[in-house]
Specification:
five-stranded antiparallel sheet, 8 helices, Alpha-Beta Plaits, single chain, alpha/beta, Rossmann fold, elongated, six-stranded parallel sheet
Length: about 250
């Protein structure tokens, strides 16, 4: 179903969002104070281009806010973005609003005001760190306050073959999902960690260093549900269930 979306700010982010939405057959109106900003929109852009202040009621009405399904405030000013988002929600009843911010310290305040935010600087920093630091805990997502994160966590090879529940108990963390061979697995009580698995945890950000440090160490002797016994080279496989059993249960038999 085609929707009408109003975007405040025609910088790189705003113009990119506008192009993507239009390519998906949505109706788009873009607001910016600087008429030259609309040059970032390609020549074939069919949406509306309104010059004005994005939290001005008349400007918003001209952009079609009264029939809009959503509003995005992505200008270069944190305060302008939040004011515009509040006007869209409180004056025009738009339920889907989001505001981009540059100062992550303001995220908690905005969240209390009921305005979903995207902290541009912090998100960009996290993405850069993912490329720079191959080990440890790398945040993939964080809540608007920055306190809770979804993170990819490295682990010692010694944990391969252990039950995921063993890692959770030892590190005192919840493993949300595992990326395995291009698929996503929700771990269960019998799921065994395989070589190449990428684990993702949900935790408080302040706990990430501790969690990463715990999982970087070998599993304690006798800890967890290792099903394979010794990992000495040349160890013969014992008889076990068919390969299908592995894919259904996530359990590795040696």
């Amino acid at each position: 179903m085609a929707l009408h979306i109003v975007i405040m700010g025609c910088g790189r982010v705003g113009s990119t969002i506008a192009h993507i939405l239009e390519a998906q057959d949505h109706s788009v109106a873009v607001i910016d104070q600087d008429p030259d900003a609309f040059r970032k929109l390609h020549a074939g852009f069919k949406g509306s281009k309104i010059t004005g202040i994005g939290f001005d009621r008349d400007v918003l009405i001209e952009a079609g806010i009264e029939r809009a399904a959503a509003f995005a405030a992505v200008s270069s000013g944190d305060n302008s973005n939040v004011i515009a988002a509040r006007v869209a929600r409180e004056s025009f009843g738009i339920r889907r609003v989001v505001a981009r911010i540059y100062d992550p310290r303001r995220a908690e305040v905005y969240q209390r005001l009921g305005i979903p935010t995207v902290a541009t600087v912090r998100w960009t920093a996290d993405q850069m760190l993912r490329k720079l630091l191959p080990e440890g805990a790398l945040p993939l997502w964080r809540d608007p306050t920055g306190a809770i994160v979804l993170a990819e966590v490295a682990y010692s090879d010694h944990w391969v073959g252990e039950k995921v529940t063993s890692l959770e108990e030892t590190a005192r963390v919840r493993i949300s999902f595992i990326a395995r061979l291009g698929e996503t697995i929700l771990p269960g009580p019998s799921t065994i960690l395989q070589e190449g698995d990428v684990i993702h945890v949900i935790a408080e950000e302040r706990e990430l260093d501790r969690i990463a440090a715990v999982l970087a160490k070998p599993a304690a002797p006798g800890k967890g549900g290792h099903l394979c016994g010794s990992r000495s080279p040349g160890l013969e496989r014992s008889a076990g269930p068919s390969p299908r059993s592995f894919w259904e249960t996530g359990t590795r038999y040696c």
